[in-house]
Please model this.
Amino acid sequence: MAYQRTPYVESKRAEARDRFIEAGLTLLSQGGWRDVQMVAVAALAGLSTGSLYLHFPSKTQLLLELYRVQAGNELAITTAIAAQPGTARERLAAAIGSFAQRALNGGRLSYALVLEPTDAEVEQLRLQFHAEFIALFQKLLDEGQASGELRVADPRVAAACVFGSITESLLHPLGMAAQAARAPGEARRGRKVDASALIGPLVDFCFHGAAPRTRRRG
Model:
């Protein structure tokens, strides 16, 4: 008869896994992907390295799970915002603004998730999540076009442009955050980014190419 884990054993395994994920995300937020080492993750979690390898047989599998957990949370939040009551334009603006605000608040962690080079497998997973974000923005653009609020030639291309403008506009401030994370205390305090000065113009720029329909006179 095959051994079956008891509910207690399963709960302890789940608890250990959560501790490893939390420790990995903490290291990721402090120094980026290069700081997420198996020995360091196990030490921060207060568990053995052997136990970590039981959950994640390789470092790449751990990195993939860290990205999947954090990016999945971001996608779920943005999807929920996009589903709230309101016009397509209002919901698109809220989704763009909220995503950018959380990214800036995340600082070093956001830079690692959105922009920092890492293992090829994680880069591939990143592209998959980017495609899901683009699909979400396309859905809002489709709805806006159907209601007459927005006008775009190709919603799929426009959605990719919206997502690209968000990530590229965050490149500099998130890069500053990554540098600040490694800087001494005094230098770190001098590198804060004014999120409010970035997000408003970003939303305006995204809508510049999706102007409302106007009726021709005559």
